[in-house]
Each structure stands twice: as structure tokens, then as C-alpha cells.
Amino acid sequence: MDQLLIAGRAYGSRLIVGTGKYKDFDETRQAIEASGAEMVTVAIRRMNIGQDPGQPNLLDVLPPSRYTILPNTAGCYTAEDAVRTLRLARELLDGHALVKLEVLGDPTTLFPNMPETLKAAEVLVKEGFQVMVYCADDPIQAKMLEDIGCAAIMPLASLIGSGMGILNPWNLRLIIDNAQVPVIVDAGVGTASDAAIAMELGCDGVLMNTAIAHAKNPVLMASAMQKAVQAGREAYLAGRMPRKLYSADPSSPTTGLIGS
Predict the structure, then answer these.
(1) How far apart, in whole angstroms, are the C-alpha atoms of residue 16 and residue 35?
(2) What is the value of pTM for the model shown?
């Protein structure tokens, strides 16, 4: 079975999903079940996983016994805030080391602040965290994050929540071709074809939230995304036919025709 390996653990699904922006926890649960995802990411600053005992707890509907919980630093704009947030997450999740780091540059574009991201990644890796890191689609900085010791590199396809799909496939290919750790597209996927394209490029997985949560039917879209990721992965492994400009190639043999 073709599995996704991250930080020494194997996953049957290559789709990672977020838990925000749904209308309620029941819709969250239904969508994530339909996606087939085994790893879910949680914004520690926005979602209760135990830090507020008086409020509904996400872990009651998405139990860690069933899902790998991936705490993230959404809403952090400095390395210091990101590191502090993930230290809190580790306490809340009984020493959980696998985390998603994102340090944002501004509240309008949500583009990653790469100097702060690199600084935070270095601190977290030294403290024993297994860091999956949201980053720009810059092959040089992606390699720097890998060299620091990050467990997975997660370049954006386009801006978070934009649904614009993959705007720069060439940079993604450069990152993929040079990486020795999983490369997972994070941010910008809008529909199932975007997810399939990411996987056909050779990405190891896709992370998404808004594309599912803001669909007219989130549960149905989650199911579509599961199939798209699987189809894209199979197409990548199968190896597509070469593109041939201005040259047709008949599907049937041209020799041995009846009557010739």
C-alpha cells in the first residue's frame, strides 16, 4: 500500500484537513469523516482542545485515538508567538511533538514571513518538535527549512483561503525534486481538480480547510477531495504519456489493417 510517511509514522490518506470555518462541530465531524483524512490540523489560538474547560472541546468529536491532531500556529506573526503557542499545544496534548508551524507576514495576504518562520523552526526542532512548516514556494528557503530538520515542507499553492489553485507549478516541482522529506501543498486549493494537479506534480499530500468548509455542501466536497487526491497520486505513480505538440498518434495500430 502506498502510504504517506511523516516523522516515522505511516498514513493511508494523503489528505490533511483543517477543522475551522464549519458551521458547528457536527458538520466538522461529518466532513472530516467523508474526507478519509487521518490527520487534522487545529488552530490553537482559535479552537478549544482543553485550554477552556467551560467550552465545547473539539477533541470530543475528533478524538486523538482516531486522528492525529496537528496543532498549528495560525494567527501568529512572530517566531516568539509561534513557539509559545506550540509549547502550549504540547502541554495540552500530553507531550505531542508533531506540529504545524506557520508564521504570517500580514493579515491581508496571510503570506508566510519567512525570516520569522526559519527562526521559529530552528528553535522548535532543537526543542524536539517534529515540525511540518507552511512556507513560500521558494526552493532555496524550502531547502533551508529541510536542512534545519523540519519533518515536512508545506509550500502554498496560492494565498490561504483564496481558492486560486496552483499558481506556480514550476516552483513546486523544484521544491519536490530537491526535497528528501515530504512536500505537502498547503493553502490555495479551491476544488478537486486543484488537489489532483498537486498530486500529479509529485506532491506527497495536500492540506486544505476553506475549500471544504466553504463549499455549498462541505461533506460532499470532502468526499470529492478524497477521491481527487487518490486519483492524482495514482496518475503520478503511473506516469503520464509525453505531451506531443502538433503531432497526432493514433490509438489503434496502422499496420495490418483489414483490406490492406
Answers:
(1) 9
(2) 0.90
20-34 tens-digit pLDDT:
899 999 999 999 999
Print the SS3 string covering the chain. Answer: CCCEEECCEEECCCEEEECCCCCCHHHHHHHHHHHCCCEEEEECCCCCCCCCCCCCCHHHCCCCCCCEEEEECCCCCCHHHHHHHHHHHHHHCCCCCEEEECCECCCCCCCECHHHHHHHHHHHHHCCCEEEEEECCCHHHHHHHHHHCCCEEEECCCCCCCCCCCCCHHHHHHHHHHCCCCEEEECCCCCHHHHHHHHHHCCCEEEECHHHHCCCCHHHHHHHHHHHHHHHHHHHHHCCCCCCCCCCCCCCCCCCCCCC
Q: pLDDT value at position 101?
A: 97
Work out the mean pLDDT of the chain and round it to a whole number.
91
100 is catalytic: yes
Contact 1, 214 (CB under 8 A): no
CA gap 10, 23 in Å, rounded? 31
Encoded amino acid at 61, one letter: V
Closest CA to 182 of 6, 1, 3: 6
Closest to 110 measured CA to CA, from 72, 149, 152: 72
CB atoms near residue 221 (< 10 Å):
21
Cell of 180: 528528501
Catalytic residue chosen out of the listed positions 21, 23, 100, 119: 100
Query: pLDDT tens digits, residue range 165-201?
Result: 999 999 999 999 999 999 999 999 999 999 999 999 9
State the Cα–Cα distance between residues 165 and 85, nearest whole angstrom.
Answer: 29
